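Subject: Interface between my chains keeps coming out wrong

I've been trying for a while to get a sensible model of this assembly. When I model each chain on its own everything looks fine, but I need the whole thing in one frame so I can look at the contacts. Pasting all components below, labels as-is. Any help appreciated, I'm running out of ideas.
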Amino acid sequence: MARYGIAVDVEKCTGCHSCFLACKDEHAGNDYPPISVAQPDIGHKWLRLREIEQGTGTKIKVDYIPIMCQHCEKPPCMAPGPEGAVYQRDDGIVIIDPQKAKGCKNIVNSCPYGAIFWNQEKELPQKCTLCAQMIDNGEKTTRCVESCPTGALIFGDLDDPKSEIAKLLVAKAEQVEAFKPKFGTKPTVKYIGLPKLFIAGEVLLSDKPKDCIKGAKVTLKADNQDKVMETNTDFFGDFEFKGLDRNIDYTLIAEYEGYYPQEITIRTYASKNVGELVLRAK
Amino acid sequence: MEYDKVVTTTAWSPGPGCHGGCGVKLYIKDGKVVKAEGDETHPFNQGRACPRLLALTQYMYHPDRITYPLKRVGKRGEGKFERISWEEALDTIEAKLGKIKEESGPESVLFCQGTGRDIGGPISFLAYSYGSPNWIQLGLAGHSCYTPRLGAMMATYGDYSVLDAAQFSEKRYDDPDYKVPQIIMVWAQNPMPGCPDGFFGHWIVDCMKRGSKLIVIDPRWTWFASRAEKFLQIRPGTDGALAMAMINVIISEELYDKDFVEQWTEGFEELKHRAAEYTPQKVAEITWIPEEDIIESARMYALAKPAAIQWGVPIDKCPEGSTVAQAITHLWCLTGNLDVPGGNVIARPAYGVTTYPFSTQEMHELYGEEFVKNLNEKRIGANEFPMVRNFRGWAQPDLAVKQMFTGDPYPIKACWIQTSNILGGQAADTRLHYEALKRMDFVVVADLFHNPTTMAVADIILPVASTAEKESFRSWWVPLQVIVPAVEVGECRSDWEINLELAKRFNPELRKRYDTVKQLIDDRLKPAGITYDQLKEQGGWVMPPENSASRPYRRYEKGLLRPDGKPGFRTTSGKVEFASKSYQDWGLDPLPYYSEPPESEVRTPELFKKYPLVMVTGRRSSVFFHSEHRMIPWLRECDPYPIVEINPSVAGKMGIEDGEWIVIENDRGSIKRKAQVTPIVHPKVISVPHGWWLPEEDGREPNLYGIWDINCNNLVHIGPGAKSGYGGGAYKTALVRIRKANEAVE
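Reply #2:
Try treating it as a single job with all components included. I did that and got this:
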């Protein structure tokens, strides 16, 4: 039996909203018994986009994260309703039964991801079905994945090592994680490269303030860890450390031969642009 | 989803609204479109679609869509319209416009379009058949949309260029002749939401996946900016200075392509001399970009082989847009990136077929040189601006709106408005255009939905077909393709159908030539040696063959560009002219230069003290195209409010919270917007999305769907602002201040 999931390659998401529209087009006005009834024209976001803007001044990052039902292995939405109101299929897809879940508003609130919506008219909790009606019809993908113009969404069988999704998750294993793993629900939607905190800045030399200093060594040390990160400034004298943890004290050292190094300490409340680090000549 | 059949066609204009080109599949059930998708076999979009195409069904079958002709029965602005037949509508128009032609001359009717899509062809055809030279984008200050850039390229080397993303080959990126640009300089565009502006945005992402690195120039951080090697956060309107400094660095450090410059260009010494005035140090002060970033970016662009520039409409809106565009054009010529794989390749309409006239030559070929020249005698702006007279066929919008009041040198009596919501969309100084339109004796609007313009001034409204309902064709730039009607909606007719019928009434000669739109299309397709039906049968599109004038690369070496078949470019010198003879002939400086925005911290320091923020309008949304789509629920849900982007440092200082309604104002007026506090916008700049009106509000006067409260163009003055008559609409540089909505005016 296949076990279906979606991988979100966050780096490739440009925030175009095509996935949201494709979901509307597939589900608004269309019943797919016994899986789902029509999504209302407005108000529901079975798939939504979150824009993340980080940094300040000259170091900013703009990212988008598509968020839909995570089709959790341990779905908290199964608890509140009567038996069978929410069920997990053998292929892993979590479905809200449109008959049995009628009237169960508390199912909406059970989802920590906010991925379940209340259909006022039909008195029904509703959410992403991973387009089970398409899968059951022998199609190889979901509408949102099909509509993604950049390949940021990938659908497939997580258990088939030859599937595109499985191969991608292996190839990028280090970057794969659940969205908000603290909820402990074990999502089958996998995120690759979720935006992390960064520290960025620029190295300048006091006697050549107009030059871009390429190749200055910059070191970042977490005060409570042994790990030391190292980088060199680029063509423009800029540097950046990505993938940092929140609320950690870091020590950053910039060095360039013939100049005194400069050291600063930073606590990562959020991504940080440390600005210009000007090194004095020895 | 169940369906009866699939129709393969091309998307262009109503629906997605865009400049088009995507191959689409329309799923039909019971005579209705039930689903729209990208066509995976089409080389342009390779299966991809945009949110607006995905919402096509909601657009086509929207309850508010106008599906039959209407006539106004109350006073203008009362919103009282009555259904009439097509015959009555067309008879009324024929009679009214016929009388105006007789009494005041055909030039007293303006034929107004919005942004250029599947409309430039039909509307210029109607205007010329009627006999009016005044084909116009009424309201667009300085005519600041692409024409300045087109003019600059034409004046420099006799052709136009676009970034090469292998779009001229059906094999696309797999074509062995193609090279991915090492560097793409994205200049004043956000290619993804900017996609409907005439270039497929995802091509830039495709190139990035294949190794292209970016330099991004913008006042605003975008997804692309935060993935760029370098982001140059520029002061709005100063792009010309930046381009000149880059030229200076490239020449003084000898980073230019010496062989290309020597063999194929002239005017290099003059350009070198001129550019030397623009030191990076001086330009750093002008542009807010650090000197070292200007230098390194110029180096990075010049050293990359190939490198390409992807530019946007803010270039046109710079003061003297046509000279800013010229400077940027020089960058790709100096570096030998002209018409090479992965550079800026020459773009001609596929097979030389004209759908939408982009040059004077095309106007001449379609309508005869004599005829066009005669019309030019009365074209608004032709006498004041030689470039307006000699390049393309547009009337000058800023002079036109003034003439609507003064009647000098001749009165303007009527407006034919097609695909343009002037008052909710492009018109700078909304109130001025409102009053000007109110003076008209007769106004026809052809559109799909009511909007502030139909409500305020329309006497007759004609219902227009969406892209799924029309027969048309497209050759901008490749492939040559047809638009196939899949269904009918109400009594809607295509722009071509409407305009051909009226054109025949005004010019009976046309009856001998064209019974149907298809015959007209076949006539236009002749240079390609194919008919509409043949093209449709063979899948709907065809690429020009290799070694033809409308297919890259290096056509200047092969003698494919000049009418005489000699190598070189289509200029009098046969060379790329860094000092343009055309500009000189048109009374303009032959060399590019920088000009300060009309209002700025530098030019008007006193005004700047009062209004310390630069308002850039026009940031794109992937779910709307200009003033369209606000009534489409699925799309509106993604971008629900008329916002203003404010940097946190500014908002913090003023106690403005994210989500709060605030006032934006200057001496021209004030509007309200919902604050979006975000670091992506420069602290000295606010970004105010344009084209906002509220279809959910009362459309009748005085409200007109809320335009007086929220349309940013209330704060923008008219142009031209450019010596050429092209460029300089101050949509990106108006000075404003902001305050909390509940605070009293000082």
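Reply #3:
Confirming on my end. Residues 465 and 494 of chain B are 5 Å apart (CA to CA).
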